[in-house]
Structures are given as structure tokens and as C-alpha cells.
Amino acid sequence: MKFDKQIGMGYKNGNYSAFYVSEPFSESSLSAHATKDFQYYNLLRAWKGKDSSFPFNDSHNKTYNVRDESSWESTLKPRLRERLNSSKNIILFLSSITENSRALREEIDYGINTLGLPVIVIYPEYSDKQSLLTPTGKSLNNAINSLWNNLPIFRDSKSKVPVLHISLDKTLIEWALTDSDLMINAKCTAGDYFFN
């Protein structure tokens, strides 16, 4: 097996969470905790903290944190890539407040277009699986499709990897996190998937 220096051949067991926060980002900042997408990410962390068997393995815990004043090119971007390189999939929180930030574009572009990571999209403003679908239950509804425009790199790249679309439902998230079809080493055919 040939070793690729850029991508690496490390153990890929993390779940990389991608979410919108205003830039520059600081987890210690009150503005980060006021951002809904960041709060949803923290919900996964809380579920894991309460129950160690919850299958969320946070890729953001695998490297040391960076400060707001860190350089994008020399520190922040390489750190995001390092975390993505050790991940088996991406958990993308996509909501009406999600914006096309530089960090989110980089995470999705590198994760999908370079690494081919499967994506679990969580739509936190939707409470159940039926709310994502058309009345026939055979496709995702227009409201979901329009959210993809908040993040064009995701909209334009998602056909390259398996993408599971789910509501903010702990049981569905737990199932998705343990499904080998949504892991890099055993992923299923590229395309959009959802529960009906």
C-alpha cells in the first residue's frame, strides 16, 4: 500500500462535526455558545458525557485547540485537515442560520472532495424524519433542498459520497453513527439517503 503524505494512513475512528460559527471562532467566547449550530454540536458532546456508550467520537478532541489570533494558513487550516484525516465521517449541522464561512467551506471541500468522507447531515430545526420529506415520503422536500444553498460546496459536492439526511433525533443519530455504510472504510454507494 502506497503512503500518501498529504492524506496519511492513520486510524480513522473520529466523527468530524462541521457547524457554522461566526469568524473568528473561539469556543470560550460567549458568541460561540449563542450560535445555534454550535449548541447542537455541544448536544452531541453532552450525550456522550452523560452516556459513554453513545457512539460519538469527537474528532475535535484529537488535537489541541487553537486561538482566535492563530493564522488561517499556518495553523487553523492544517488543524482542521488533521482532524478530518483522522475521521471516518462528517456530521454536518445544516440549519437556516448556517452561513458559507471559510472554515465550513474548507471542512466540507477537503472532507468530501479530497478524503471522500461520508456525511451525516443533521437538520436541527426538524424534529422527525417525516418533516424532511415530501408528502409521498419518496424524496427530500424543497425546504431541505433549499438549505443546501446555504453551503454551495456541500450542494455541489455531495453527489460524490454517501449522505444521510436526518432530523435532530438522538435515536436516528445513534443509528447513523454506528452504520458502517457511513464510515470511510466501508462506505456504501454515493448518493442521498434518508429514512421514510
UniProtKB/TrEMBL annotation:
Official protein name in the record: Thoeris protein ThsB TIR-like domain-containing protein
Domain Thoeris protein ThsB TIR-like stretches: 32-127
InterPro entries cross-referenced by the UniProt entry: ThsB__TIR-like_domain
Alphabetized Pfam families for the sequence: ThsB_TIR
Native source organism of the sequence: termite gut metagenome
